[in-house]
Amino acid sequence: MIEVNLDVVMARRRMSLNELSQRVGITLANLSILKNNKAKAIRFSTLEAICRELNCSVGDILVYREEK
Questions:
Q1: Which tens digit of pLDDT belongs to each residue from 24-45?
Q2: CATH code for the domain of 29
Q3: Which position among 31, 41, 43, 62 has the lowest Cβ density within 10 Å, counted as fewest Cβ atoms?
């Protein structure tokens, strides 16, 4: 299972969902879906933009966890 830790990284950078949404250029609704682990997919270009704005790596945001 892939876990999305976007909220953790955003909190560390003290960035709100609204600010990230504006900087990345995706809707608040779509970013919220990603943040809440409801997304089924993410474009590499979106992931790249998020990492650029949060100054982090993909591994900071996406983490693999074995399902129990």
A1: 999 999 999 999 999 999 999 9
A2: 1.10.260.40
A3: 41
